[in-house]
Amino acid sequence: ALTRTRSHAHTHTHIHTGMRSHTHTHTHTYIHTHAHTRTYKHAHAHTHIHICAHKRTRTHTHTHAHPYT
């Protein structure tokens, strides 16, 4: 059984300057985990962190599990 763990971290920062000062910071953390066993299992973990200045902090966490039998 082979187990490989890959972690990818992507950070995107978008700064929009218009009539009003608006700073938009978007942080995207992508964690990809591969679990290779007798029963091909595929696990995807997506963590979405959305931070807007002068606004509420939104945190989205998506976890997808794809078991291949």
Structure, explained:
The protein has about 70 residues and is mainly beta. The protein has one domain (about 1-65). The protein has no helices and four strands. The chain has strands at about 1-15, 20-35, 40-50, 55-65. A four-stranded antiparallel sheet has the order 1-2-3-4, with no helix packed on it. β3 (about 40-50) and β4 form a beta hairpin. The protein is elongated. It starts with a strand and ends with a strand. Keywords: Integrin. This is Putative integrin beta-like 1. It comes from Rhipicephalus pulchellus (Yellow backed tick).
Shape annotation: elongated
Computed structural class: mainly beta
Instruction: Report the C-alpha radius of gyration, rounded.
Output: 17 Å
Number of domains: 1
β-sheet strand percentage = over 45%
Order of helices and strands: EEEE
Q: How is this structure best summarized?
A:
This protein has 69 residues and is mostly beta strands. 0% of the residues lie in helices and 80% in strands. It is built from no helices and 4 strands.
List the helices and strands and how they pair.
Layout: E1 2-17, E2 21-36, E3 41-52, E4 57-67
Antiparallel strand pairs: 1-2, 2-3, 3-4
Protein name: Putative integrin beta-like 1
Keywords: Integrin
Organism: Rhipicephalus pulchellus
